[in-house]
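Step 1: inspect the first sequence and its tokens.
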Amino acid sequence: MADLGLTATAAYVCGRAAVLGDTSAAVVVATFAWFEPGLITGAYVAGMNGLLARVIDDARSAATGASLRQVLGDEDPTAISDILSDAVAAAEPSGRPLFAARRASHDSNEGRPSDPFERLWWACETLRDHRGDSHTAAVLAAGIGPAEMNVLTELAVGMPLRSYTRTRGWTDEHIDAAIDRLAERGWLAGTELTDAGHQARSELEAQTDRQDERIVQAIGTRLPQVCAQLAAWGSLCIQAKLFPDDALKRAAG
């Protein structure tokens, strides 16, 4: 991504958004949901300057596949990547723009990535986007704003107040307003979530989980095996410093 001239932030934003095609920043802001709009707009406009979305998507897929191949070594991801790819095909795309776009980027147009490591990455990320889009729907239905959601998340997983929310581009002014709204709901007292706040955050996760039912059914009795294998591979990625070693950061997403 650096070879394409992208900064770290632009690589993240443009890399994830590339499956949407050469679209407007407003669409990307809407699909990313929890980030401060100016942060996403600036990174997207700067990163896409003179580049085609497909070029970015192809480069990202190839680089990630090569990275996984190096980290996993002699491991063969074919069986797991195929199970997850079948789950991608079974999932419902309605109301899920990032999921639908990422699935169509390979599954409908050109077939699944032929390289098993790229296929593993594509399937995992596509399922992640299904859950992410589902989570956005659950949160919006509950009438919770983006800055509020970030505060809920950081406190629910044990991060200090404001720490995670600031990384999403929100200013102290935005965070103060979010804190006031959460307090009005009875979900926040001082710097801690109330019991009602924890319950509300847990219910959002439960509503998101329920929307993954088709995926779980498609994987079926193989789910424990798949989760155990992905956890083991994830540990290798953490040891290689490709994933953050901070468990709280991983928990927050």
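Step 2: inspect the second sequence and its tokens, then contrast the two.
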Amino acid sequence: MWKPQGMLSSELVYSDGLCEVHQTVVGPFENNVYILRCKETGDAVLIDAADEHDYLLELARKLDVRFVVETHGHHDHIQAVPAMREAGIDVAIAAGDAAMLPSYDLILDDDIALSVGRLSLRTIATPGHTPGSMCFSVLGTPLLFSGDTLFPGGPGNTKSDIGDFSTIIRSIDDRLFGAFDPETVVLPGHGLATTIGTERPQLDEWVARGW
């Protein structure tokens, strides 16, 4: 069951027999923060400790968050990282972006399965927005957390010192469009959800426009 997004407070936006996803929007850049929870065990993971650390810690305690994964190291996605670690919650990020965090506990490799209760959260290296950008899929579900790699209508911004347009296009084409079904629900780091099937036909247009 998928519910439309756009809420201003924490809300259950996805639920099936295996898991549920809670979403909230925090900070001046309106970052999406997701909490993926295993229904069988109650264990959960928080995706992107972006901002408003007191509020996110409250949610983490309420939903039994065991660890945090970061989609990338940009400033607006990591403001609550120190508070999470101080509360005893481990924070993980890909090696390519680790130096962008003030602190972290674990390095994420590509194509590994992280246990969230009985769930398996798979890491997918998708460089381009940043060198260490990473997406996460939930095995056995249609869920794909895309961070700032893929949005409705195009890739994430690459007009920075560490971004690269050709790299993000290759990541999207090979690692996302080439690997996931059209029905896959894409949950981005900002804004509304989309699907692989909605975005895939637009790839050539993105390449032609250059952003």
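Step 3: confirm your contrast with the notes below.
The longest helix spans residues 165-177. Residues 11-209 form a domain with the Metallo-beta-lactamase; Chain A fold (CATH 3.60.15.10).
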